[in-house]
Amino acid sequence: MNIVILGGAGFIGQKLAIKLAENGVLRGQPIQKITLCDMVEPQNQIQANFPIQFTQLEMTDETSVSAAISDDTDVIFHLASIVSGQAEADMQLGYQVNLDGMLHVLKRICQLPKPPVLVFSSSIAVYAAQTPQPIEDHFIRSPQSSYGTQKVICELLLNDYSRKGLVDGRGVRLPTITVRPGKPNAAASSFLSSIIREPLVGEKAICPVTEDYRHYFSSPRTIIKNIIHAAEIDAKDLGGDRNLMLPGISATVKDMLASLRNVAGDEVAELVEFKRDETIEKIVLTWVSDLNPERALELGFYQDESFDDFIKAHIEDELS
Ligand SMILES: NC(=O)c1ccc[n+]([C@@H]2O[C@H](COP(=O)([O-])OP(=O)(O)OC[C@H]3O[C@@H](n4cnc5c(N)ncnc54)[C@H](O)[C@@H]3O)[C@@H](O)[C@H]2O)c1
Question: Which domain holds residue 270?
Answer without folding.
Answer: 188-216+249-290+305-319
